[in-house]
Design goal:
Layout lengths: L6 E7 L3 E8 L6 E8 L5 E2 L2 E2 L2 H15 L5 E6 L4 E9 L3 H15 L7 E12 L3 E10 H13 L3 E7 H13 L6 E7 L4 E7 L2 E8 L3 H12 L3 H8 L9 H30 L4 E7 L8 H9 L3 E3 L17 H5 L4 H7 L4
Parallel strand pairs: 1-6, 6-10, 11-14, 14-15
Antiparallel strand pairs: 1-2, 2-3, 4-5, 7-9, 8-9, 11-12, 12-13
Helix pairs in contact: 4-10, 5-6, 5-7, 7-8
Bound molecules: adenosine-5'-triphosphate and magnesium ion.
Length: 346
């Protein structure tokens, strides 16, 4: 209707919490509403929904408690059923690439090619003598169909499906407008998964999901310090139970963050082995794990690169009271993916 702006929700169904961000569409984005709600443990494993009812409950309770009325939703996917690859193929027109991509994809996608949805983006039309570089995304139809059915059941209307890696990249580019010659590494640390995406000039050089996240820290604290789940989950946020040994928590922290550092280093080594020298000049952390006390400083020392927390609302207008006493600094990194998804709405 004339003069009426549409609104879009970015929906990030994580394995530990569901996140929703509602933005105004059109230019000059405004944050209208957001919400975070817990998902039962083990309802989602490595990107796959195991307990549908738990996930439905989590989204439904968010919609009700936060009063979301917008129906158009952009949804994020990641995990074993999603493949992102930067590939080289013969240079051809966009229309021919579209025809050809299925045959190219067969080499890279470990699933039946007839059971996946493919998407691509030509990121470098002039590669070598007569090739082009294309980012290929393949997602199992089953994953997309299951999510679509789930959203319809909630009376929501899925308008776009995007990957975690690209949602975080999207929110980064929208807010930071990085110079085209700078290589940036985006690290999104969730409960069960860490998504590492190295980006340059608006396109991804390499995106990887690592099945290692805050859950590993929590379960190590349970096993090695003897905390119950709740104490371990609090300790991860910096609240160590009275009487517990600071040193043993510190020891587990160092093992966890050391392993995470190794995973990040491996991704960067892999990248330089395929693209030659790619010096990362800065890293941005997001996801709940980015808020673990001292994690950022540890990684900064270990990797020798400037690292910051990603603020998804840097260039977005919002009423500061919307975040309550915690403020945008604490809530922002958790909402990075949901915000990046919502930014996809026109
Ligand atoms: N302030 C905080 N400090 C430390 N850890 C935190 C904080 N807030 C949340 N976390 C941890 O971050 C995790 C949740 O982060 P996030 O919402 O990004 O994960 P998720 O999307 O549910 O998981 P995944 O993407 O792996 O499926 C939880 O394990 C939680 O314990
Ligand atoms: Mg997540």
């Amino acid at each position: 209707m004339f003069g009426r702006k549409k609104k879009v929700i970015g929906l990030d169904i994580g394995s530990s919490q569901t996140k929703m961000v509602e933005l105004s569409s059109g230019k000059g984005k405004k944050l209208l509403n957001y919400g975070i709600s817990k998902v039962l443990p083990d309802a989602i494993v490595e990107g796959e929904i195991i307990d549908r009812e738990a996930v439905l409950d989590s989204v439904r309770s968010l919609i009700e408690s936060k009063g979301f009325t917008t129906k158009d939703v952009v949804i994020g996917i990641a995990g074993r059923d999603v493949i992102i690859k930067r590939i080289a193929m013969d240079r051809m027109s966009e229309a021919d690439t579209k025809e050809q991509i299925k045959w190219e994809a067969e080499q890279y996608v470990p699933f039946d090619i007839n059971e996946v949805t493919l998407d691509f983006d030509v990121v470098n039309p002039n590669f070598g003598e007569n090739q082009q570089e294309v980012i290929l995304v393949a997602a199992k139809n089953e994953l997309i169909n299951n999510l679509t059915v789930l959203l319809r059941e909630l009376n929501l209307n899925p308008i776009i499906v995007d990957t975690t890696a690209f949602a975080v990249q999207n929110v980064f580019e929208y807010n930071y407008s990085p110079p085209p010659d700078e290589t940036t590494c985006l690290i999104h640390i969730g409960a069960g998964m860490t998504v590492i995406n190295v980006v340059k000039a608006g396109s991804s050089l390499s995106a990887r999901d690592v099945y290692y996240g805050v859950n590993a820290f929590i379960s190590k604290l349970q096993k090695e310090v003897g905390f119950n789940y709740e104490d371990a989950a609090n300790a991860v946020k910096g609240t160590i139970p009275v009487g517990a040994s600071q040193d043993s928590v510190q020891g587990v922290f160092e093992t966890f963050v050391g392993d995470l550092g190794t995973q990040i280093e491996r991704s960067l080594q892999f990248l330089s082995s395929v693209t030659g020298e790619e010096k990362v000049s800065r890293m941005y952390l997001s996801g709940g794990g980015s808020l673990i006390p001292n994690l950022l400083d540890y990684l900064k020392r270990r990797l020798g690169v400037p690292i910051e927390l990603l603020n998804p609302f840097k260039n977005i207008v919002y009423d500061p009271t919307i975040f309550g006493p915690e403020g945008a600094d604490v809530v922002g990194p958790i909402l990075a993916q949901a915000c990046g998804l919502a930014l996809r709405g026109e």
